[in-house]
Amino acid sequence: MLTQEQLAQYRLDGYVLVSGLISEETIANAEAAMWFTLGMNRDDPTSWSPFPEETDGLTTNVNLGLIEHFGLQTPALLACCTPAFYEVQDQLAQKNPGAFHCQNPQPEAVWTRSVFPVSSDWNYFNGHVDGGYRPFNVFPGSFRVSSLTYLDSGVTQGGGTVIWPWSHRKLSQAAMQSPDRYNILSDFKNPQQRFDLGEPIELRPSRGDVLFFHYLLVHSGSLNTSNKPRFALRLMCTCATCRIWEKNGKWNIWMP
After folding, report:
1. Which residues contact 19 (CB under 8 A, 6 or more apart)?
2. For 206-231, how does the pLDDT look when each residue is reduced to its tens digit (9 = 90+)?
3. N or C: which end of the chain has fewer CB within 10 A?
4. Are 114 and 237 in contact (CB under 8 A)?
5. Residue 173: what pLDDT?
6. CA nearest 161: which of 11, 7, 14?
7. Domain spanning 4-42+54-253: which CATH class is it, in words?
8. Nearest to 129 by CA among 57, 231, 68, 197
9. Is 59 helix (H, G, I), strand (E, B) or coil?
10. DSSP assigned state of 198
11. Does pLDDT of 125 surpass 90?
12. In angstroms, what CA-CA distances link 34 with 40, 53, 120, 134, 175?
């Protein structure tokens, strides 16, 4: 379970990066499964290109160095959902119990984001809140808590997650002060420019860390200009309730 200091950080910053929820053996098996799924050799960069051809459940963007798999049910990847992971997730979900959540206690699959090095200047993408293009009211929100699990240690400008700390408080305050103007999440388009959020920070998680974040936290991805890929995963399901979170084919984002 999280300490009082970690809970305070989640409340104030809108996120908390947690270590120690997944064993090194589990992470090593998950990383090996990712290389196998990609059909690449970790120790041979020449095998990292060309990217695999797109198929059902697999999309690529060479310019962004991005390969995404949707609906992978590989046991080694699902094993990252450990009892400790669920305990922390349940603890944080209670911070916003009235928000949307899946009725299934566990996910069915994973959505992986593999970000490979590109030969361009580093930059990050436009910030957003999850669910910003779906019919969710600002209150009680689009989910209770969400997570992103990292299978390797982050490096500077290595394709990591970029976040705007405290942004969830600014957006929440705006919605409370102007409920007619900020009623649904789509009212928060382009939040980094509209709400003077300042410069973001680039997270550099350790191998096996899990990022838990608030539904109004503004965040984005970034380019990878390092010399190694970055693997991360989110969780998916096929239940009818979560169809509002449709992502690819039959697969929806699983929100606990």
Report:
1. 206, 208, 209
2. 999 999 999 999 999 999 999 999 99
3. N
4. no
5. 96
6. 14
7. mainly beta
8. 197
9. strand
10. -
11. yes
12. 9, 16, 25, 30, 41
43-58 average pLDDT score? 96
Q: What is the DSSP letter of 207?
A: T
Q: In whole angstroms, how far apart are CA 45 and each of 30, 41, 53?
A: 19, 7, 18
Query: Is the Cβ–Cβ distance between 71 and 37 less than 8 Å?
Result: no
Residue with tokens 């997944």: 22
What's the mean pLDDT when you consider all of the chain? 96
| Contact between residue 233 and residue 70 where contact means Cβ atoms under 8 Å apart | no
The first and second tokens of residue 33, run together, are 């499964």
Nearest Cα residue to 255 out of 137, 96, 143: 143
The model's pLDDT over 14-31, given as tens digits with 9 standing for 90+, comes to 999 999 999 999 999 999
Under 8 Å between Cβ of 67 and 38: yes
Q: Which residue in this structure is represented by tokens 């695999």?
A: 52
Q: Does residue 171 surpass a pLDDT of 90? A: yes
